[in-house]
User: Which sequence fits this backbone?
C-alpha cells in the first residue's frame, strides 16, 4: 500500500529510524523497505517529520503485528516508555504486577518495568519507584537524534515534554548564548548545543549534572556546554548580561528565579518561562511576574503563549516565550 515514508540512504537508516521512533512517528503496522540504496521508513504523521528529512509516498507492505501488552491482558494498559524502562502509574499493586508481567511477555522493548511509588518531591524533583520486573532504573533515552543517559531514581526527566523541548530548540541559532537555568540531564541544553549554541547549564542535583556532562560527551557537544552544580541564583553575577536565550523549566517556582534571569539576560534575550496555572488564567500571572522583574530596565514582548499539556484537573502547564529588550 502507498504510505508517507521518510527516504534516507541506507547508511543513515538506523540513525533516522531511531530518531523517528523517539518522536513516535514510525508507523509500526507497516514494513520498512530497502530499494536502490535507499531506506523507506513509513511514518504516521508526515507533517510532524523534521524539515531536514525527505518525505515521499512509497509502496510498503503491511507487517505482521507484534504481541502487545494489550494482547496479553485483554485490555489496553496505560504506560510511558523512557528508553527501555516502562513506567506505570497504578494504585492497585496487583494490577500493576499483572501489567508488568504482560509487558515483559510482550514484544515491547523493555528491560525494566516500574510503578510510581511517590509524587515528585524535594528540591531535586525525584520520586520513589517500585521495580516490578527487570532490574535497575538506569536507561538511555533517545529523543530527536540525541541520547540521554539517566537514572530515573536519581534525576527528574519527563518523556512527555519531548515535543515541547523540540519546539524550543528549533528556535535556537548557531552561535547564540543559551542558559538553561534548571538543566537536569540536558534535554534542553544538549540539543541547543547541537544546534550550534554555546550553552551554560545549571542544576542543584549533582547526579543530574554528572549525567549532563556525560551526555554532552555522548552527543559530541562537550566543547559547547558548561555545566554548573548549584543554585543558579549564585551563578547569575558571574554570567551577568551573557544570555541571549534563557530556559526556565521549573514550572511551580520559576517566578522565584526571575531576578536571576534578568541579571543573566543580555541586551536582547528570549526567555522560555514555564508555569502551571488554572485554566481560567493560564498566562496572566506569569506575564505579570516577568514584567515586575524586568521592567523598566527591559521592554517585555510576549511572543508566544503556549499550552504545553494538561497538568491536573483545571490546571495547565504553559510556556511564555518572552523577548526582553534592554531600553
Assistant:
Amino acid at each position: 500500500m502507498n504510505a508517507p515514508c521518510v527516504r534516507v540512504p541506507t547508511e543513515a537508516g538506523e540513525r533516522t529510524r531511531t530518531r523517528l521512533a523517539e518522536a513516535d512517528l514510525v508507523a509500526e503496522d507497516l514494513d520498512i523497505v530497502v530499494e536502490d540504496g535507499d531506506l523507506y521508513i513509513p511514518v504516521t504523521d508526515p507533517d510532524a517529520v523534521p524539515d531536514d528529512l525527505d518525505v515521499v509516498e512509497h509502496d510498503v507492505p503491511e507487517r505482521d503485528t507484534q504481541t502487545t501488552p494489550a494482547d496479553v491482558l485483554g485490555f489496553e494498559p496505560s504506560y510511558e516508555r523512557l528508553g527501555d524502562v516502562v513506567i506505570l502509574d497504578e494504585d492497585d499493586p496487583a494490577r500493576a504486577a499483572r501489567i508488568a508481567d504482560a509487558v515483559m511477555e510482550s514484544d515491547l522493548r523493555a528491560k525494566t518495568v516500574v510503578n510510581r511509588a511517590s509524587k515528585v518531591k524535594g528540591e531535586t524533583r525525584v520520586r520513589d519507584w517500585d521495580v516490578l520486573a527487570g532490574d535497575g532504573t538506569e536507561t538511555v533515552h533517545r529523543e530527536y537524534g540525541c541520547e540521554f543517559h539517566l537514572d530515573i531514581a536519581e534525576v527528574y526527566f519527563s518523556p512527555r515534554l519531548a515535543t515541547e523541548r523540540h519546539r524550543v530548540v528549533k528556535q535556537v541559532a548557531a552561535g547564540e548564548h543559551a542558559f538553561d537555568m534548571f538543566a537536569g540531564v540536558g534535554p534542553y541544553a544538549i540539543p541547543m548545543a547541537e544546534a550550534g549554541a554555546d550553552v551554560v547549564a545549571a542544576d542543584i542535583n549533582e547526579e543530574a549534572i554528572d549525567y549532563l556532562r556525560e551526555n554532552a560527551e555522548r552527543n559530541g557537544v562537550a566543547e559547547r556546554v558548561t555545566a554548573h552544580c548549584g543554585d543558579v541564583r549564585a551563578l547569575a553575577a558571574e554570567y551577568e548580561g551573557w544570555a541571549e536565550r534563557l530556559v526556565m523549566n521549573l514550572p511551580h517556582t520559576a517566578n522565584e528565579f526571575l531576578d536571576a534571569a534578568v541579571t543573566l539576560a543580555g541586551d536582547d534575550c528570549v526567555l522560555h518561562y514555564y508555569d502551571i496555572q488554572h485554566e481560567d488564567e493560564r498566562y496572566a500571572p506569569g506575564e505579570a511576574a516577568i514584567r515586575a522583574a524586568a521592567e523598566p530596565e527591559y521592554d517585555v514582548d510576549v511572543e508566544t503563549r503556549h499550552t504545553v499539556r494538561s497538568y491536573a484537573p483545571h490546571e495547565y502547564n504553559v510556556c511564555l516565550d518572552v523577548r526582553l529588550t534592554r531600553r
Observations:
- The first strand starts at residue 2 and ends at 9.
- The chain has a mean pLDDT of 93.
- The longest helix spans residues 93-105.
